[in-house]
Design goal:
PriA; 19 helices; 6-stranded parallel sheet; single chain; alpha/beta
Length: about 625
C-alpha cells in the first residue's frame, strides 16, 4: 500500500490486511482508505500478496474508495523512479500523476472504444529531414527509435507529431505527446483530428478542461479506449496502454517543469518512461537545449534535422545591427527601432504582409528610473521596482502593489521619472505613432492572438504569445535583445535563442528577421546560421568544463540557514560531492548547492531525501526545499 503522506521518512509501502468483503474490489491500482497514525488517509493498492514479512500485527484497510484501477504497474514504477531522482516521495508524484476522483464520472457508462486505426499516414514531409523517413519506418515496424528533432522554419510541427503518433497507432501501440501550453495543445489536437479522421482515438489532458472532463478523459485512457494522449506536463504520467512513442515539443520551455514537489521536468519523466517501457522517443523544437544535445552526443538519440540546402531554401533572412549599419546610422546601436528594422517593416507593410515585433517585457513601463540622475526607482516599503501602468498612470510597486504617487528620488530629490525598460504596450503605442496608417495589435498576457490574416498590420507580442500568420509574416523584428542576453541565468543564452527561433520560424521564406543586437554575439551568430545545434553543443561543452547541469547533477537546498546546515550535516553525500554556497535567497533564507557527477546523481538525491526524513522524524520546525537540477540554478 502507498499511503498518502508527505513525510519523507514514511515513503515506503505498508502492509494491510484485506477484509473478505473487499477481496474482489481491492485490486492493485485502486484507491482505498486506511487508518494510519490514528487517522483515515487515502492510499493506493500497489500489490496483493498471500503473506507479509511484517512481524507485528497488521491492520485491515478501512474501505475501498473505488474499484476503478487508476494506477497501472507501469505508472507506479515510473513514479517511484521519478521520486528517487528528484528526492521526493511516491505519494507526491502520484498526486501529480493521477487526477482527483470524480464519482459521477466513474459511475457513467464508458464510451464505446473506436475501431482499430488502419488509415494510411502520409509522412512525406518527414523525408525533408535526415533520418526522418527512417524514423517513421521504425515506428511503423514497432521498433523504438530515439530522436532529437530540429524542425525547419515554418514547419507545421503539430502535423508532423500527429503523423508520428498515427504511425505508432497503426502499428498497434499507443503514443504520448507533451506540449508546454494550451495554445500548442489546441494545435496538436486539431492536427490529430485531421490525421486520424475524427475523434475517439486520442484525448487531450490539461487542467484547463476542468476536473470532471479531465477525469473522464483520464478514465478513457486507463480503460484502454483511447491510445493516444496529448497534454501538458502532468500528461507525461498518463496510463497509456502498450506505449510505443513518447514525445515532447519545445523542451526548453520552463512550463514543462512542475512547480510542486518534487519539481519533476516533463522531459526527464518521458525519457525515464522510454527507458522503462522500451518505446520510441522524440524531443523536438525549433531550438535545442543542452540536455537534448547531450542525448545526441552520448548516442542515446539520433539527430533528425534538415540538410543545409533545404534549410537555406526555407529559412528567413536574418539581419543584425552590425558595424556597417552603425556607420550609416550612428544611433542604430541605441535605438529600439533602428533604420534597418524600420525599413524591413515598411517594405513588408507595403507588400500587404503583417509584421511581427517581439518585445521581451509585458506591460507599459515595467521599470522606471529618475529622469535626472538615472537612479532606479524603488518602493520605499519593500524596495521593489516601480512600474508605470500607462502614460497618465500612477507608479506602483511590482512586488507589493502599493502606489507611489509621491515618489521622490532618494539621491537627488527629483520627482520626474523616465523609462528604464519599455514593455509591449508602450512599444505598440510608439509604433502606432511611427506608422499612423497601419493597424497595431498586441498579443500577450492580457489577450493572446491565435492567428492573424495576411494583411498589412503590426503585431506586438511578448515571447511565447506570437500568433500564426496566414502565409507567414513579411518581417520579424526582435527588439530589446539585451533583456535576454543580460539575464543572470545559466540558461540565458539558450533561452534567448529559443525565443528568437520560435519567432523567426513564423516568417515566410526569405523574409527579413531583424535582431537588434550585435552580430558578433554567440547567440546572434547561431540565429544568423539558423543552427541551434551549434550553440547547444557549445553550451554543453562549456557546462561540462564548469561542472554545470546537464554535464553534472546539482541539488539546490533553500531554507533558513540553521535548517539547511542541519540537513547537510545529516546527509551522507556521495564521495566527491561538492557543497557550494551559501547565497542569500528570500528574506531570512539562504541557498546551498550540492554538486556531484551524473553517475552519482541518484545517490545524491537519495542521501538528501534520507536527511530530510531524519529531520521529519525529529519534527524539525523549519522545512528545507530540495530541488534537483532546478531551472533557475543561478
Amino acid at each position: 500500500m502507498c499511503v498518502d503522506s508527505p513525510l519523507p521518512h514514511l515513503d515506503r509501502p505498508f502492509d494491510y490486511l484485506v477484509p473478505i468483503d473487499a477481496a474482489d474490489s481491492a485490486r492493485p491500482g485502486t484507491r482505498v482508505k486506511v487508518r494510519f497514525s490514528g487517522q483515515l488517509v487515502d492510499g493506493f493498492v500497489l500489490e496483493r500478496a498471500a503473506g507479509s514479512e511484517h512481524e507485528g500485527r497488521l491492520s485491515f484497510l478501512d474501505r475501498v474508495i473505488s474499484p476503478e484501477r487508476v494506477l497501472t504497474p507501469e505508472v507506479a514504477r515510473l513514479a517511484r523512479e521519478v521520486a528517487d531522482r528528484y528526492a521526493g516521495t511516491l505519494s507526491d508524484v502520484l498526486r501529480l500523476a493521477i487526477p482527483p476522483r470524480q464519482a459521477k464520472v466513474e459511475s457513467a457508462p464508458p464510451a464505446e472504444p473506436p475501431p482499430p486505426f488502419t488509415g494510411a499516414v502520409a509522412g512525406e514531409p518527414w523525408s525533408r529531414y535526415t533520418a526522418g523517413a527512417a524514423l517513421l519506418r521504425a515506428l511503423a515496424d514497432d521498433r523504438a527509435p530515439r530522436a532529437v528533432w530540429t524542425a525547419l522554419p515554418g514547419e507545421d510541427w503539430p502535423a508532423r507529431l500527429a503523423e508520428a503518433a498515427a504511425t505508432t497507432l497503426a502499428a498497434g501501440r499507443g503514443a504520448l505527446i507533451v506540449v508546454a501550453d494550451a495554445r500548442d495543445l489546441d494545435r496538436l489536437d486539431a492536427a490529430l483530428l485531421a490525421v486520424l479522421g475524427g475523434p475517439g482515438h486520442h484525448v487531450a489532458l490539461s487542467a484547463a478542461i476542468g476536473p470532471a472532463e479531465r477525469y473522464r478523459r483520464f478514465l478513457a485512457v486507463a480503460r484502454g479506449s483511447a491510445r493516444i494522449v496529448i497534454g501538458t506536463r502532468a500528461a507525461a504520467f498518463a496510463p497509456v496502454a502498450g506505449l510505443g512513442l513518447v514525445a515532447i515539443w519545445d523542451d526548453g520551455d520552463d512550463l514543462h517543469s512542475d512547480q510542486r514537489a518534487p519539481y519533476p521536468h516533463a522531459r526527464q519523466v518521458l525519457l525515464a518512461r522510454a527507458e522503462q517501457e522500451r518505446c520510441a522517443a522524440i524531443v523536438g523544437g525549433f531550438g535545442r537545449t543542452a540536455e537534448a544535445q547531450q542525448l545526441v552526443e552520448t548516442g542515446w538519440a539520433i539527430d533528425v534535422s534538415a540538410a543545409r540546402d533545404e534549410l537555406r531554401r526555407l529559412m528567413p533572412r536574418v539581419l543584425t545591427v552590425g558595424e556597417h549599419e552603425r556607420a550609416r546610422d550612428p544611433q542604430a546601436a541605441a535605438a529600439r527601432l533602428p533604420t534597418i528594422a524600420w525599413r524591413a517593416a515598411r517594405e513588408a507593410l507595403s507588400g500587404g504582409a503583417p509584421v511581427l515585433i517581439q518585445v521581451p517585457r509585458r506591460g507599459y513601463l515595467p521599470a522606471v528610473s529618475c529622469a535626472d540622475c538615472f537612479t532606479p526607482a524603488r518602493c520605499v516599503v519593500c524596495s521593489g521596482p516601480l512600474a508605470l501602468p500607462a502614460a497618465d498612470g500612477v507608479p506602483f510597486c511590482r512586488w507589493c502593489g502599493r502606489p507611489a504617487a509621491d515618489h521622490a528620488c532618494p539621491e537627488c530629490g527629483s520627482r520626474r521619472l523616465r523609462a528604464a525598460v519599455i514593455g509591449a504596450r508602450r512599444t505598440a503605442e510608439e509604433l502606432a505613432r511611427a506608422f499612423p496608417d497601419t493597424p497595431v495589435r498586441t498579443s500577450g498576457r492580457d489577450g493572446i492572438l491565435t492567428s492573424v490574416p495576411h494583411e498589412a498590420m503590426l503585431v506586438v507580442s511578448t515571447p511565447g504569445a506570437e500568433p500564426l500568420a496566414d502565409g507567414g509574416f513579411g518581417a520579424v523584428l526582435l527588439l530589446d535583445a539585451w533583456a535576454f542576453l543580460t539575464r543572470a541565468d545559466l540558461r540565458g543564452t539558450e533561452e534567448a535563442l529559443r525565443r528568437w527561433f520560435a519567432a523567426a520560424a513564423l516568417a515566410r521564406p526569405g523574409a527579413p528577421v531583424v535582431v537588434v543586437a550585435d552580430g558578433g554575439l554567440v547567440a546572434v551568430q547561431a540565429l544568423l546560421r539558423f543552427d541551434p545545434a551549434w550553440l547547444a553543443a557549445r553550451e554543453l561543452a562549456e557546462r561540462r568544463e564548469l561542472g554545470f547541469p546537464p554535464a553534472a547533477r546539482m541539488a539546490a537546498l533553500t531554507g533558513p540557514p540553521a535548517a539547511v546546515a542541519e540537513l547537510l550535516a545529516l546527509a551522507e553525500l556521495p564521495p566527491g560531492a561538492e557543497v557550494l554556497g551559501p547565497v542569500p535567497a528570500a528574506e531570512g533564507q539562504e541557498r546551498m548547492l550540492v554538486r556531484t557527477t551524473r553517475s552519482a546523481g541518484k545517490a545524491l538525491a537519495l542521501a538528501l531525501k534520507a536527511a530530510a526524513g531524519a529531520r521529519s522524524v525529529r519534527k524539525a520546525a523549519d522545512p528545507v526545499k530540495i530541488q534537483v537540477d532546478p531551472l533557475d540554478l543561478l
